[in-house]
Write a structure and sequence with these properties.
Layout lengths: L10 H16 L2 H7 L10 H10 L7 H6 L8 H9 L5 H6 L1
């Protein structure tokens, strides 16, 4: 998964990011997303956007100020909104796997 440099504020955040990354790897989150048809046709991978959105509350960040308005985020607001509103993503299946 991509490094989210815009979240980092110190050594403790780096430790938390590594814990979240390890959680996603040990539970095969990327595979579960793919099985649930949560994938993007173009642009950034869905797993990278999901990882970023999933990590926000652990760092005390919010979607609007720290992702949408942040120029350091590698993907734009359109990618985030498209990810969140996609009708083809089977979130129910993802939560039940």
């Amino acid at each position: 998964m991509q490094t989210n440099d815009f979240i980092f504020e110190g050594q403790e955040d780096t430790l938390n990011l590594n814990r979240i990354r390890q959680f996603c790897k040990s539970f095969n989150i990327a595979t579960l997303l793919n099985r649930s048809r949560i994938r993007k046709a173009k642009g950034f991978e869905a797993k990278d956007i999901f990882f970023t959105l999933f990590a926000l509350p652990f760092f005390g960040k919010d979607l609007f100020h720290d992702v949408i308005k942040n120029n350091n985020v590698p993907f734009g607001k359109d990618a985030v909104y498209e990810f969140l509103k996609s009708e083809t993503f089977n979130w129910r299946k993802f939560t039940k796997i």
